Amino acid sequence: MTRPRVSFGMIVFNGEPFILYNLRALYPFAHQILVVEGACLSSKRIATSDGHSTDGTLEALYKFKKEEDIENKLEIIVKDGFWKEKDEQSQAYAERATGDYLWQIDVDEFYQPDDMAAILQLFENDPTISGASIKQITFWGGFDYLTDGFYLRNGEALFRRIFRWGPGYSYITHRPPTVYNAAGKDLFTLHWLNGEELAARGILLYHYSLLFPKQVIEKCEYYATAGWAERPHARDWAQEVYLNLKKPFRVHNVYDYLSWLEFFKGQHPSQINALRKDIHEGKVKLELRQTQDIEKLLRSPIYRAERSMLIFSEGIRKRYQPFWSRQIYRLKHPIASFKSLLRKTHHKIRSSQKGF
To answer: The whole model's pTM is what?
Structure first.
């Protein structure tokens, strides 16, 4: 057997400071790295007039191509003007893919090298696998902090990432990522690896999506104007919550749902450690979020107690009420959410005892 050939597909817009470190992380595992650079129409306000990154991302791609792409794996895909949406961008890299698998990746997501090798070994051992989801952990405000919450725990932490690929396969849509095989079958409905099962083996997606202020503000600008996102208050969230931590149980950027912060106690992927070192040494210059307020919050006994109640309430919900409306997640305070959950659980248990 030979290791499966992987075509990595990436959409990138204003991808600094991650882009070079991400390419270096992917390179040893790549048959191809297909990068679609540029803005879609919803990002027009933070792009160049001809639809490109404003932070040097495109220049960094060409620099990598010239200086580090010794095996000619990188293909940079651009267009004059703006992309309609991310469907078009994803299809642009998919139509150029020649690997056995197509691995979709964002510029701010990383993996442990051993985990990538383990995933490829699973594919090598069983060629019938049609694809895989991977569970993310989301970094917030600094390298030592994570966000979690009801939105992520309701299945949104599982990202469809890897797809079997071959002649006649087609990339259908970006939300959620969907690929059909040559027979017109959705790969997700076939022999699909579940992200929870991979997470049980310690295989995770390290998502640095809420790390740096500039990065978060630009994401929120996009979400505020993208109709599909339904987040008209994203700019306000960035200022009030991300930058000032005024609502410590609305810290995830899908802010309709209760969420919280936690300490990260694991090890970062090697290229993230390289990025951290370069930031510390001044080789990478960017604004970091100050973390004194995060530290104070996470060391607060009251915050830890309320967070524990929320996590406990989620366990009760899954045990007794898997069919409940998601509206319980949208309550304004963790204690209110916890009390409401207990009332509904009590009512359900009494009803079942009466034979209803």
So the answer is: 0.90
